[in-house]
């Protein structure tokens, strides 16, 4: 059994979370070390000891919380920032005023930056800006006035956290783009493998049935024709995957083609190529752009219906053996769909005569649909050289209100 490719995703955030966890532990030990070296200078050392006990327990107990974005919840971030802010505001109560005025560190010291960085890694630069602003306000309150070193530290934390948050957002977007590209590459390779397998088995069988049926004639010829059409449809499917056909059935007695296409129910644009793809068959070739051809749902369905009406005319007037070609062109301001056949053509004046006799198939089913969309239909025919129907619809076209095209 052939191996199926699997896309392996590697998170670019994982190293950041690991670094953050290590930073929190190291800065917690650093803050406790600062307290130990200056213990005799504190006016209320028991306040510092109590705070560091809480800080140590919180830092070690919440290490799993900073292992990834899923576990780092908003509630945890709020509590983490609250502990950092509480330590800053408790500093005047534990330390002496002279040491604070001379630029002494706060109780949490640089551990506070870890709380802000958690906001940056989790929510990007906007969350980082909110957290760093709260820390800046607490530092200004703790110092009592905007000292130079305090402002310097506040700006440093603010800029660094926002920059890291922005880098995280860019990394996430790049990761999503890379993952999508890898998925597309894997899907393309899988489709190529399936196409090779199908070509080596199913398509060759269908082609053989088509050739043998044509050679035997009679009912076998009809069976060969059906096999040929299924071969074309299957080739279209494995090469592009465009055809969203849920059911294609043919009334062989009357020569009518009934097609049911699964279409989106939303109001977003439809790819005109997907609506025209079901018309392709053994005697109908479809040439289309490589990129989607978006139209509003109403406009796309009306254009597809007009193409179907043109093909109905080919079957009715050019004979069962006639071939037809559909060409889709995506111009800057409009979309042009051309339906051409190799039939006997339309005698001069025949269309006007048909309208005068009350047969309005071309007038309503083709020209009327395009007129309601703000476009137009031009029919060119030379006796003995086939017929060409050119449909033009402006981009952004919507069917006129109150008008429902005839079906």
TrEMBL record:
Give cofactor(s), names only: [4Fe-4S] cluster
The top EC class, named as a word, is transferase
* Keywords of the record: 4Fe-4S, Cytoplasm, Iron, Iron-sulfur, Kinase, Membrane, Metal-binding, Transferase, Transmembrane, Transmembrane helix, Two-component regulatory system
Q: Which NCBIfam families does the record cross-reference, listed alphabetically?
A: HK_morpho_MacS (NF047322)
The transmembrane segments are: 21-39, 45-64, 76-94, 114-138, 150-168
Cellular compartment(s): Cytoplasm
Q: Which reaction does it catalyse?
A: ATP + protein L-histidine = ADP + protein N-phospho-L-histidine
- Domain Histidine kinase/HSP90-like ATPase, first and last residues per copy: 304-395
What taxonomic lineage is listed for the species of origin?
A: Bacteria, Bacillati, Actinomycetota, Actinomycetes, Kitasatosporales
Q: Fetch the InterPro entries from UniProt.
A: DUF5931 (IPR045975), HATPase_C_sf (IPR036890), HATPase_dom (IPR003594), Sensor_HK_TwoCompSys (IPR050482), Sig_transdc_His_kin-like_C (IPR004358), Sig_transdc_His_kin_sub3_dim/P (IPR011712)
Q: Name the source organism.
A: Streptomyces rubradiris
What CDD domains does the record tag this protein with?
HATPase_UhpB-NarQ-NarX-like (cd16917)
What is the role of the protein in this entry? Member of the two-component regulatory system NreB/NreC involved in the control of dissimilatory nitrate/nitrite reduction in response to oxygen. NreB functions as a direct oxygen sensor histidine kinase which is autophosphorylated, in the absence of oxygen, probably at the conserved histidine residue, and transfers its phosphate group probably to a conserved aspartate residue of NreC. NreB/NreC activates the expression of the nitrate (narGHJI) and nitrite (nir) reductase operons, as well as the putative nitrate transporter gene narT.
- The name this protein carries in UniProt is Oxygen sensor histidine kinase NreB
Q: Which residues form the Signal transduction histidine kinase subgroup 3 dimerisation and phosphoacceptor domain?
A: 190-243
Gene3D superfamilies named in the record: 1.20.5.1930, Histidine kinase-like ATPase, C-terminal domain
Q: What is its EC number?
A: 2.7.13.3
């Amino acid at each position: 059994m052939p191996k199926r490719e699997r896309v392996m995703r590697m998170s670019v955030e994982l190293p950041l979370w690991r670094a953050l966890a290590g930073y929190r532990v190291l800065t917690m030990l650093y803050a406790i070390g600062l307290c130990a070296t200056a213990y005799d200078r504190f006016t209320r050392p028991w306040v510092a000891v109590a705070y560091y006990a809480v800080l140590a327990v919180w830092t070690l107990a919440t290490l799993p919380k900073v292992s990834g974005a899923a576990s780092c919840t908003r509630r945890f971030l709020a509590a983490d920032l609250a502990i950092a802010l509480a330590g800053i505001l408790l500093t005047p109560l534990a330390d002496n005023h002279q040491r604070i005025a001379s630029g002494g560190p706060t109780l949490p010291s640089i551990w506070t930056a870890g709380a802000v960085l958690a906001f940056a890694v989790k929510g990007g630069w906007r969350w980082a800006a909110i957290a760093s602003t709260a820390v800046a306000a607490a530092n200004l309150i703790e110092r009592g006035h905007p000292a130079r070193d305090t402002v310097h530290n506040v700006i440093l934390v603010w800029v660094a956290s926002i920059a890291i948050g922005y880098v995280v957002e860019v990394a996430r977007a790049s990761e999503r783009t890379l993952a999508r590209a890898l998925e597309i590459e894997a899907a393309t390779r899988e489709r190529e493998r399936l196409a090779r397998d199908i070509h080596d088995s199913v398509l060759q069988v269908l082609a053989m049935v088509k050739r043998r049926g044509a050679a035997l004639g009679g009912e076998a010829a009809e069976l060969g024709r059906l096999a040929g059409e299924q071969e074309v449809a299957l080739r279209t499917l494995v090469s592009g995957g465009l055809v969203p056909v849920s059911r294609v059935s043919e009334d062989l007695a009357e020569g009518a083609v009934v097609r049911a296409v699964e279409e989106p129910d939303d109001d977003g644009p439809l790819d005109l190529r997907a609506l025209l793809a079901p018309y392709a068959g053994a005697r109908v070739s479809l040439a289309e752009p490589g990129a989607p051809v978006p139209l509003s749902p109403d406009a796309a369905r009306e254009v597809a219906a007009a193409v179907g009406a043109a093909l109905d005319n080919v079957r009715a007037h050019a004979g069962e053996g006639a071939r037809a070609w559909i060409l889709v062109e995506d111009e800057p301001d409009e979309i042009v769909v051309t339906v051409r056949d190799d039939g006997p053509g339309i005698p001069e004046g025949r269309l006007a005569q048909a309208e005068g006799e009350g047969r309005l198939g071309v007038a309503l089913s083709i020209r009327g649909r395009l007129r309601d969309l703000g476009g137009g239909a031009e029919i060119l025919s030379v006796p003995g050289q086939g017929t060409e129907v050119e449909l033009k619809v402006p981009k952004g076209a919507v069917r006129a209100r109150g008008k429902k095209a005839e079906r």
